[in-house]
Design brief:
Blueprint: E1 2-8, E2 13-20, E3 25-29, H1 35-46, E4 49-54, H2 60-63, H3 66-73, E5 76-79, H4 84-88, H5 91-97, E6 110-111, E7 117-120, E8 123-129, E9 138-142, E10 147-151, E11 154-155, E12 158-159, H6 169-180, E13 188-191, E14 197-198, H7 199-205
Parallel strand pairs: 3-4, 4-5, 5-6, 10-13
Antiparallel strand pairs: 1-2, 2-3, 7-8, 8-9, 9-10, 11-12, 13-14
């Protein structure tokens, strides 16, 4: 599995294109603005078809290009039902931001939840619910690839904002301890913003979250 790191949109939110050329299949994790134009040449070069779009949460910068991606590729969409309201009613976020963001209502084909496992790209992925930044924030974990795509729950040396509607610092830090810090230390954390990090590194040094006892 190849992992393409694609910062996109007005605040350089990261979308991750996961490709498996042997199966001619691909998955996109989050759909920031303009990402369709970035993934199309990669899909063509590797001979892959985009099968699914996984949304780590419903905030505008992660969904700005989602409806367009789905129209063009017919990808199946996965997300968490706790963010259903903003997936289906994006005007809520435009009202909060005070400007038009080019958002369209999004139909989620499959609602996924805590502990659910499914197969994609020829491997198993696990879903973990990590609320606190956003009620429906989830991560997608591939044990054999030692990779976790965590949305805006945890960053390199930081955590997602908790001062937005539906955010809660206590909930967020508990989620990180229970759902991210319980992954193997050598798991690579792929966040929605900034550089990647490791679970073990964040357990040792993240100033916002006290690690669980080992």
């Amino acid at each position: 599995m190849k992992i393409h790191v694609l910062p996109s949109g007005p605040i350089q939110t990261i979308g991750y294109l996961l490709t498996e050329p042997k199966l001619a299949e691909a998955v996109l994790v989050d759909a920031p603005g303009g990402i369709l134009d970035k993934i199309q040449p990669l899909l063509a070069k590797e001979g892959c078809q985009l099968k699914e779009l996984w949304l780590t949460h419903g905030h505008w910068d992660h969904t700005q290009n989602a409806a367009k991606v789905v129209r063009e590729t017919k990808a199946l969409v996965r997300g968490h039902a706790d963010d259903r309201m903003i997936f289906e009613n994006p005007e809520i976020m435009e009202e909060r931001m005070g400007r038009k963001l080019g958002l369209e209502p999004l139909h989620v084909d499959t609602w996924v939840g805590q502990g659910e496992k499914f197969t994609a790209l020829g491997r198993e992925f696990e879903v973990r619910h990590v609320p606190g930044h956003c009620p429906g924030n989830i991560l997608f974990y591939a044990a054999d690839a030692k990779a976790a795509f965590v949305g805006d729950a945890l960053f390199n040396g930081g955590v997602g904002r908790w001062d937005l509607p539906g955010g809660d610092l206590e909930v967020l830090t508990q989620s990180i301890r229970e759902q991210i810090y319980t992954l193997p230390d050598d798991t690579v954390v792929f966040p929605g913003h900034g550089s990647q990090t490791m679970v073990g590194t964040e357990k040792e040094s993240n100033p916002f979250v006290t690690a669980v006892a080992r």
